[in-house]
Amino acid sequence: MNKKLGSILQYVLFLGIGIFLVWWSLQQIPADKWGEFKAALSNARYWLVFPVFLILTASHVLRALRWKILIEPMGYHPSLPNAFFAVMVGYLANLAVPRLGEVLKCTILARYEKVPAQKLVGTIVAERAFDVISLALVFVLAFILQFDIVGQYAINLFQEAFQDKAGNINANKLVILLCIIIAIIGAIIYWFKQFAHLAIVEKIKHILLGIWEGISSVRKLRQKGLFIVYSTAIWILYIVGTWVGLFAIEATSHLSLADAISALAFASIGMILTPGGIGAYAFFIAKVLELSNVPFEMGYANGTLQWLAQFGIVLLMGFISLGLLPIYNRKRTHEKS
Q1: Is the pTM of this model over 0.85?
Q2: Which site from 21, 31, 126, 223 is most exposed, i.e. has the minimal number of CB atoms within 10 Å?
Q3: How far apart, in whole angstroms, are the C-alpha atoms of residue 81 and residue 154?
Q4: SS3 assignment, position 24
Q5: Secondary structure of 298-322 in HEC code, one letter for each residue
Q6: Residue 98 CB neighbours (<10 A)
Q7: Cα-Cα-Cα-Cα dihedral of 243, 245, 250, 253, to 10°?
């Protein structure tokens, strides 16, 4: 009961953060810019939702194919439609309750493909581990391609934090920061050793161990190359989908593929922070595009449209998959009979 209450409170907290970010973002739009913000939404190129739909649906198909590769070493060979339907229903469930989709995804495949659900948990861990690595690589790519924007922004933040009034680097501040970092690392090591018996410490260790096991499990795959190809293609499609989305309004249509990479990198953090990325996704896109001289209200308009498109695609394909699951499997059962 306590665990269930904790999950509910956690969900309410992060949903609250998302709603707050929506409110906060709207407050950042100057009163004299509201007309431009509304005009950007009303005059948007809504037809672009169709290519974005195709791009993102293709990425979900690739996720299903990649999941099949992770399952096959266990001796099971699920059909691609069932794997795809499970992926989409999982995404649909995640819109309501974060991480519920991962459980439902395994349950659906276990039901229709007779794969033990507990054996599928390891494949989910492996997927998440490689998604973390892929996102980190997207950040690195954004930093390399837009060093003059993203990199310079980071440098400016560093200078603001550590320069004195004369414009020189304050050595004392750097020493204090270094001491704080060392103290934090020391405290974490001590905490892990001293309180290893605590449930939260064991849970953190379990998560870290799961990520490592997920990464190392790829060595056992029969189709390692294809797994890497699928993983790369998934994120390439995410980047292309974000880039196409930038053409939705006039104020962001001039931006480059490099801008899309930076937007995707930070927007992905927003998807992690709040349920379905509500509030955070559009906010982070707006803040990143500001670095490319796009006014916040225009960036937020574009981020809102991109979030709505993704939300709508998951909603539509999720419900279609939910409806097709019993129909497809009834037909399979009939054909086998």
Answers
A1: no
A2: 31
A3: 44
A4: helix
A5: HHHHHHHHHHHHHHHHHHHHHHHHH
A6: 18
A7: 10
Task: Enter the tokens of residue 284.
Answer: 């982070």
d(CA 120, CA 110): 8
Contact 138, 240 (CB under 8 A): no
Bridge partners (DSSP) listed for residue 169: 163
| Interhelix angle 117-145/224-246, nearest 10 degrees | 50
- Helix, strand, coil in percent for the chain, rounding step 5: 85, 0, 15
155 by Cβ neighbours in 10 Å (0-12 / 13-18 / 19+) ranks as: exposed
pLDDT by residue for the chain (337 residues), tens only, comes to 455 555 555 556 555 655 665 665 666 666 666 777 788 778 889 999 999 999 999 999 999 999 999 888 778 888 999 999 999 998 888 877 767 778 888 888 888 888 777 777 778 878 888 888 888 899 889 888 887 777 766 666 566 666 666 666 666 767 777 788 787 777 777 666 766 666 666 766 665 665 565 556 566 777 888 988 999 999 999 999 999 999 999 999 999 999 999 999 888 888 887 777 777 888 888 888 988 889 888 998 999 999 989 888 988 999 999 889 988 888 776 666 5
- Asked if residues 18 and 279 have their Cβ atoms less than 8 Å apart, the reply is yes
> Comparing C-alpha atoms, which of 34, 35, 118 is closest to residue 76?
118
* CA atoms of 303 and 41, how far apart (whole Å): 11
- Report residue 4 as tokens: 């269930």
Let me know: does 12 contact 222? Beta carbons within 8 Å.
no
| Cβ–Cβ < 8 Å for 299, 289 | yes
* Nearest-angstrom CA–CA distance, 115 and 76: 7
Dihedral angle over CA of 282, 287, 293, 297, nearest 10: 50
